[in-house]
Design brief:
Blueprint (H helix, E strand, L loop, with lengths): L10 E7 L3 H15 L2 E9 L8 H4 L4 E7 L8 H19 L8 E7 L3 E6 L7 E4 L2 E10 L2 E4 L10 H18 L16
């Protein structure tokens, strides 16, 4: 029988995109207040370079930023984080009276040394149910000193710019883990009260 162990803490990141410049400022304030300062940032990447899927609901000229946060998290907290990011999307839409159906998109996930995990509200053959209506997928694996895509990996996550960012995130995680205890502690706060 295998021994049950606590997971190692992981590095939380979010892919954030919008046609509204104010959305990035607002989202950054919300996120940093809970997860610590942004320690790795990349972008903007043009969403429409990889897909036209979001244009009908979000508009055109959608820059996407990738942000990684200072505070490591317990991987079991990903469902709470995804539900919270959905709440933030709705909150931003209400307070700005945006004309777009979806003025803000926040996709959280985490980087571990051997994989990159994305959260989703949508089920599919390659996704595993976590809790509270949230699923997860392994989007990239790290092997032979590089990120490798899987058959379902989104085209943007296969691009050199994204992979450079996630390699930087992986290095940050290795450094951060070397100075913290080997098992997860709860982050300071996941949900707004």
């Amino acid at each position: 029988m295998g021994q049950i162990r606590s997971p190692q803490p992981v590095l939380l990141f979010a892919a954030v995109f919008s046609a509204e410049e104010s959305a990035f400022v607002w989202t950054r304030q919300q996120a940093e207040s809970l997860w610590g300062k942004i320690v790795r940032e990349s972008g903007p990447f043009p969403v429409e370079q990889f897909t036209g899927y979001y244009a009908p609901s979000m508009g055109h000229s959608l820059p996407k930023f990738l942000w990684a946060f200072e505070n490591l998290i317990d991987p079991a907290d990903l469902p709470d984080i995804k539900r919270l990011s959905n709440e933030w999307e709705e909150q931003f839409k209400r307070q700005t009276c945006a004309v777009q159906e979806r003025p803000l998109n926040i996709d959280p996930g985490y980087v571990d040394l051997g994989k990159l995990i994305l959260a989703s509200t949508k089920d599919h053959a390659h996704r595993i149910y976590l809790s509270g209506g949230i699923f997860a997928e392994t989007t990239l694996i790290y092997t032979q000193k590089e990120w490798k895509p899987l058959p379902w990996t989104y085209p943007d996550y296969q691009s050199p710019g994204y992979q450079t960012f996630f390699t930087q995130c992986r290095e940050y995680l290795k450094t951060k883990r070397s100075v913290i205890p080997p098992t997860c502690g709860k982050p300071p706060c996941i949900r707004q009260r």
